[in-house]
Amino acid sequence: MRFITLAVCALLSTAPVFAQDVVPTSSQQIKMTYAPVVKAVAPAVVNVYSKQTVQGGANNPFANDPLFAPFFQQFAPAKKRVQQSLGSGFIASGDGLIVTNAHVIRNSEEIMVGLTDGRQLPARAVLIDQPSDLALLRIDAKGAALPTLKLSDSETLEVGDLVLAVGDPFGVGQTVTSGIVSALARSNTDINDFDFFIQTDAAINPGNSGGPLVDMDGRVVGVNSAIYSRSGGNLGIGFAIPADMVRAVIAAEKSGQVGKRGVVRPWLGFKAQSMTQDVAASLGFDRAQGALVADVVKGGPGEKAGLKTGDVITGLGNYTLRDYEELRYRIATMPIGQQTTLKVRRAGQDVMLTFTAERPAEIPAKNPVTIVGKNPLEGATLINVSPAVVEDMGLANQTEGVVVQSVKAGTIGARLGLEPGDGIIAVANKPITSSDQVQALLPRPADGRWIIKIRRSGRDKTLILN
User: Fold this and answer.
1) Which of the listed residues 261, 359, 404, 444 has the most CB atoms within 10 Å of its CB?
2) Number of Cβ within a 10 Å radius of residue 163
C-alpha cells in the first residue's frame, strides 16, 4: 500500500503536488489493488452456521408474546421447526477463539464454523454478551495452525479512512467490499445497549453480521453488526462495533469477569443525560457537550468519586466526551478495579475527580418478601432491584420496581405463569418502589379486578385480572 502512503505525504507537503507529478514506481501502484490486504485477512474470516428449534406460531396475535405465550402453549401447542441462520466471524487467536455477533448464535442448539479451506468444525459458545451484541466461540482445530487477525486501536481511526468489510452476505460465499469510515461514535441507533458505533459506506448485507471491518494494515477496527435499510439490502449505511469493545469482551472472558448476560461491567452509580442546546445554554456552555448528572446513588462509585447532582461530566481520562452514550461506552470498556479521571464542570469551575470501576453492588438490599393470600401474585417472592440483582438475574431494562426471585409451585402466581425475573412495576396503578409495599396493595379490590403492570424481557404489559 505504498501508493496510498505517497498520496498522503503529497497532501501534507508544503508545495502543491498535482496528479501528473506523481509517477507510479511499481506494478502494485499502477493496479491500485486491495489484493494484498484481502490475501492476508480472508483466511481468518469464517462463516458461522447456527440451528435452533422454535415453536410455530399459533393463530393468535398474542401467541408469540413472551408474557402470554405460556397460556397459549397450554391449549394450542404449536408444531416445532428447525430455524437456521448464517453469519460471519473471524479467528482472534490461534487456540480457536472466534469473534462474531451475539444475535448470530443466540439460542442456538448447534453451531458450525466454516473455514476458507473448506473445513467445517463444530463450535461452542464460550461467551454471549447481550449488551454489546458480541459473542465468542471456540473451535478445536485438532492441533492444526489457524490464521488469525489482530485488533486495531479503534481510537486511531479517523473519518475518511479506507476500510474493507469481509463476510458472507446472503450466503453466496466470502465477499469483500470497500469503503470509508463515514462517521465515528454514532449513537441513537438502538442496535445494542451502548449505542457507540463506527459508520461505514462499505457494503454490508445480511450474512455480514459478525464479520470484520479491517483497515489497510489488515487489522480489525470493528465488527460489522447492522445496516440502515428500508428494503433489507445495503444503502451504504452500515454500523460496526469498535475494536476496543471487542478487546474488552475478550479480556473479560479470559479473566472470568462474566455473568448471566455476558461481561460483568462497571456500574456508574449515578444517572445522567446528554446535554441539549437549551440545557447547555442555561449552564453557560457554548455547545451541547458532555453528560449532566441527574442523580447520584448513595454508596456508589459516583458518590465515592465526589460527583454531585448538577455536575456536568465533560471528560474521562484523555477523552473529551460528546454525550452520555460515550461516557457509558468508555466506562463499559474498563476492567473492574481500574481508575480513571473525570473532568467535571461545577459552578463554572473545572474539577478533576478520581473514578474507580466497581462491580455492580446490592444497593438497595434485596429484602425478599413472599406474597400470601388469594391474589394474582400469591406464591411469588419479590426482591428489590439493584445493580447486583440486574447482573445476577440477567435482567434487561429493569432498573425500577421489584422483581420476582422465585414462584412456589401450585400457587396462583405459578398458575398465571409468573417467572423469576419478571418485574412488578405497578399495582392498582400505583408505582412500586420496594418489595415491602406490594403486599399492602393486593387485598381484593372493590370492583373485583386486579390491575398489575409487569415487565418481562424489557417489555411492559398491564394485566387486568378478575
Assistant:
1) 404
2) 24
